[in-house]
Amino acid sequence: MLKSECALQALGQVSYDLTETEKTSNVLMRALYLVQNLKAGDGLSKDNVRAIRPGLGLPPKYLDVVLGKRVKLDVKRGSALVWSILE
User: Fold this and answer.
1) Average pLDDT of span 18-24
2) 12 — alpha (psi -120 to 50), left (phi > 0) or beta?
3) CATH number 3.90.1210.10 is the correct assignment for the domain at 26-82
4) DSSP class of 42
5) Peptide bond preceding 54: is omega within 30 degrees of 0, i.e. cis?
6) Rounded to whole angstroms, how far apart are CA atoms 52 and 34?
7) By the 8 A CB rule, do 34 and 69 touch?
8) pTM value?
9) What does the pLDDT read at residue 24?
10) pLDDT value at 75 more than 90
């Protein structure tokens, strides 16, 4: 095997999918959750959205993106924040 082939093989492959280990550790990650009951049309604010565990909703990096958006249906306190409930 040539040195260049060994170098290319050592680089490996890029994968953006979660590995099985990462999928099972999702519960240890934080996600955005609603901490108040909201009615359809209510806006999201720092008062009603928190980043808590388990990581079953949107990642906390989207907090600034979702603040000010409105929910399109009634949602209960403790619900994970997902794109499908936003207008």
Assistant:
1) 75
2) left
3) yes
4) P
5) yes
6) 10
7) no
8) 0.72
9) 74
10) yes
